[in-house]
Prior knowledge:
3 helices; alpha+beta; disordered C terminus; six-stranded antiparallel β-sheet
Amino acid sequence: MRAAPPTTWPLARQGFWRLAHATVPALAGASLGGALAPWPLPAALGAAALAAVLADRLWQRRQPAVLTWDGVQWQLDAREGSPRGRASLIWDGGRWLMARWHDGASLADRWLLLDRTDGASAAGWHALRVALVQGAGARSDVSPGTSCVEVA
């Protein structure tokens, strides 16, 4: 099987993922505000609005990142000295993808949200999906007796 072609794709900045990023804290704020206040409905609405606004401001302030597959290995951010690691597909929603990023230096995984509308071309989106589905850069140094379980 041929290796996936090189591709570069920015992490999601707008659309569905931005809405999801604001909705989850809004729901948590509404639950907390409704449970703790003497007037549950106004407190829930106010807490939800405040949490959504704060989450959206944090979303807008984050640094744009780029996921790059060069045909040999993955890199997160195209800047010099940025980490190299593994990216694996978690969820493919057609126009949205969720991938897991793991670099060798850190013990924590990072969830990557990718949206087709953030990139420049349909061919680049297809190349990204192919690279993620093929498991490009997947760990190949698993020895007998160890397991690498990934839930997709």
